[in-house]
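Notes from hallway chat w/ T.B., transcribed later so I don't forget. T.B. wanted the structure written out for a chain they're using in a teaching module, and asked if we could keep both sequence and structure tokens in one place. Agreed to drop them here.
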Amino acid sequence: MNKLRLMLYPGLKFKRWVFVIISGVILISLGVSMALNLNELNLLRYEVIGFLLVLAGIYVVGLGIRRMIISIYDALLPDKNAELIELLYQERYRRKGPKIVVVGGGTGLSTMLRGIKKFTNNITAIVTVADDGGSSGALRDELGILPPGDIRNCLVALADTEPLMEKLFQYRFSDGEDLKGHSFGNLFIATMTEVLGDFDKAVKESSKVLAIKGQVLPSTLEDVRLSARLKSGELIKGESQIPKVEGKIEEVFINPENSKPLPEALTALKEADAIILGPGSLYTSLLPNLLVKELSKAIKSSEALKLYICNVMTQFGETDDYTVSDHVQTLYDHVGDDIIDYVLVNNEEVDSDLLFKYAKEGAKPVEIDWDKLEELDIEVIEESLINQSDLVRHNPDKLAKVIIDLILERR
């Protein structure tokens, strides 16, 4: 009864079309009754009038239904430019889309998610919580919560909400002694964690606020810390410190080493049609997730398509002079050679001006070294995958199309 009263509330422009539909049904009923009145003297006249009433009733019912749908559409989606039928088709299409699990962190992962969400709603992002720098690191140290930054980026990337809400979550304060450098989204998740007493619940409730497609999960709820051992033997503690120190990385590891993943993450991996590793910083965004042993074990045992998306450019302090095979070998060295089936690489040339800009920062395009990749016995897929503006980044639409095409071919 309460719902019925709400539907009849003034100003919803709903009642009038209900009455129009009822009027149409009455006209149809009268028409059928009149047409079935078999008075021999007036048979033709009754049939004609009845037929006209039925036609009029059908028209009135159709008009009422159409206008009712438009009223609901205008109320729920006032600013949408797309046609309702197109939106319904897209929603139906995405609900039946493949189950994709993406693993990583940083801007590379969130960029890819913006493309994938156009094809499917069945997305699970498993995101690193090893960050200890910037706003995330400060909140981690001051409040004792897991770092929210990478998770925030993925939530925003999967959001189906107003642009203002996205700008709000990504807004970073530039003034204020305590607020400077913090993003609103990080503070929001931190506040939700304090209110709910649980970081996982805070992420889930933030997902509802942003109406995201799929789910975003931390790789673990434990206070995991990342460290690196250089080939020189030097030990570097802290995710944010690793790229700052000169020297080749021998290995990275997490503490506690037996950190447990979320059950939802393991379920998603078990049910996945495709598992995507990267793109993102090899040592500080991707590997912290794979070093959660039960996650890497679940990936290896999965029958899903397993794809590693190699970075377009090397990263100073992490992957200096790395080729594609160096990236793949690093994965193998840390978690075994059965972690991926394919590696996806970019074969589009980078603009010379951008090459010069990156060279000043100690970065260059990742070379595709075919001979060594053949020795690693991994299938390589090369495509034009990048956007080139002020930075070289993966194009989310190109990336998503390659991934979906691969899944469809596999099916």
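Follow-up for T.B.: Residues 224 and 255 are 6 Å apart (CA to CA). Might be a good example for the class.
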